[in-house]
Amino acid sequence: MSDNELAAMQARIVREAGRIVQAKGYAALSMRQLAAGLGLTAGALHRYFPTKQHVLLASCGAALDELTEALRRIEAGEPKPLRALERMMVADGDFALDDTDRFRVVLLDPDVGEIELPDTKALDGYRVLQGTVRQAQEAALLRPIPNHDIACILVGCVHGLVVMAITIREIDVSDIEPLVATAARATLRGLVPSDVEIEP
């Protein structure tokens, strides 16, 4: 099997694990059930991942890498820090909404949270956002609040809306993408000094 074929199969396994966890929770995920869903034997599945923890580590790591890359592209391509922060918040929302199964696996299932990811992988995307917050503060575009606190507020705003959209069926948030964009702009507006204008 070529490296590309191996990577494609591992990605397929990770996607199937996400669907199982979303439908039944982490406790319901087993290598046997995962193999059955993929049309493989349990022995064949173990050639790709030794345990279900390895499957979930791969899922979390790949997802976080993808988000970090999206944030880095914005950081590199958008010279205005406030505009970059707004775009990063929208990108975070788009990432979560693009695959809500993956979002659940990475961030919502408490058992998955017990899996230890390397610090750099778990925090790389957050550090990109925090660095952009620091740039905005150095340019006097944000209030003098600790940059960690501002970064947490920005992430929490987006993730709170996404969690509400995918877990509280009784609240109609069918237009969640524009709502995330509106919340991003409104949250930033509350964090800038009164004499700073956020460009349209």
UniProtKB/TrEMBL annotation:
Spell out where the chain crosses the membrane. none
The answer on whether this UniProt entry bears the keyword DNA-binding reads yes
The superkingdom of the source organism is Bacteria
Record's keyword annotation contains Transport: no
Q: Which residues bind DNA?
A: 30-49
Alphabetized Pfam families for the sequence: TetR_N (PF00440)
Which keywords annotate this record? DNA-binding
Domain HTH tetR-type positions: 7-67
Descriptive protein name: AcrR family transcriptional regulator
Organism field: Methylobacterium aerolatum
